Amino acid sequence: MTPAARVQSAIELLDGIIEAARAQGAPADRILAEWFKGHRFAGSKDRRAIRELVFAAIRACGPIPPSGRAAMLRLAGGDSALASLFDGSSYGPAALVPGEPVAEGGVAPAWLTERLKASAVSEAEGQALLGRAPLDLRVNTLMASRSGLQLPLEAEPTAAPQGLRLASGTPVEQWDAWREGSIEVQDTGSQLACLAVDARPGETVIDLCAGGGGKTLALAAAMENQGRLIASDTDRQRLSRLAPRAERAGATLIETRLLDPGRELEGLADLAAAADAVLVDAPCSGTGTWRRNPEARWRLNPAALDKLIATQARLLDIAAALVRPGGRVSYVVCSLLDEEGAGQFDAFLARDPRFIAAPLALPLGSARGEGVRLSPFHDGTDGFFIACATSA
Fold this sequence. Notes:
- Helices cover 39% and strands 17% of the residues.
- It contains 16 helices and 13 strands.
- The strands form two sheets. Strands 5, 6, 7, 8, 9, 10, 11, 12 and 13 form a nine-stranded mixed beta sheet that branches. Strands 2-3-1-4 form a four-stranded antiparallel beta sheet.
- By secondary structure, it is α/β, with parallel strands linked by helices.
- The protein folds into three domains: 3-105; 135-185, Sun protein, domain 3 (Alpha-Beta Plaits, 2-Layer Sandwich), CATH 3.30.70; 195-391, Vaccinia Virus protein VP39 (Rossmann fold), CATH 3.40.50.150.
């Protein structure tokens, strides 16, 4: 493919991604995968170049663009070589027309930018949310140790006790260490969130919103396969991914429970007031993950955020009912918005006086309310709010 043809393909893909974002359809990665599957003539270099153009254009736009072409013109505004490819050549984008629409820049749509400002997220922090994330690994201590692990490439240790960092795109799933379960892909911030749970061998621990089980596997390693670890979720498809991952990781203590939405406590009734620790890795806006999913900025709206906030509060109340006296509730969201983080946790403590905030001793993060906030700008991790409370 010519460079101009790659640009035009990226524009067409962006049209599909924009439409999907408006309709809450397929994510960008899936749209790209389907397009590549149907366009076998695009070689590996073409696919890589098109993918980079698409995501660079997404990052360049704040609000959702009017079209893929407008998004690409926004990117071309700072790249004369890219702008020169809008020349009307065969298979390339049409020639530039004076006054045609160009997408707006910025960190996010205006309403969301204001929410970030209200949560003391600076302009520099906001821009860092749109950078490219490295590839972080967690060494699975059920299989290996960080000091003794041999990998094909040298990895930089992170602040997490078993964390390693590699360049984005490193094909770790082709490595023996991954196939044998010695490593898992997990952001350093996510690893620190698991560290905050302080899960111990022999305890009863519930991962209330386990999803695909990334944090569950970290908890299993911390518990040394001793005790009870219940991974629950209302999403059958996501939860089904845990079993093969657990087998590869040698995590034998995990029990999975598929819960009915709105009736989660009924599905965990036998564990009421019995858990030593409950992790609430709650559904959230994902503002802290924009480095990996930049088009997520276009999918969020105030009504959806309000619904997420209500869900988070309900899940915290469910966790409170599951914890034994003296037990722990750990609350985690991959968001930098206070209404999902510090404000949400403060509201939980206010309505349930049995719980008091517990101090966190994490190697990264800044104090935010009764918890800790991690961000790409300050900590080099995804954005997280992490807090813990102990039951009286």
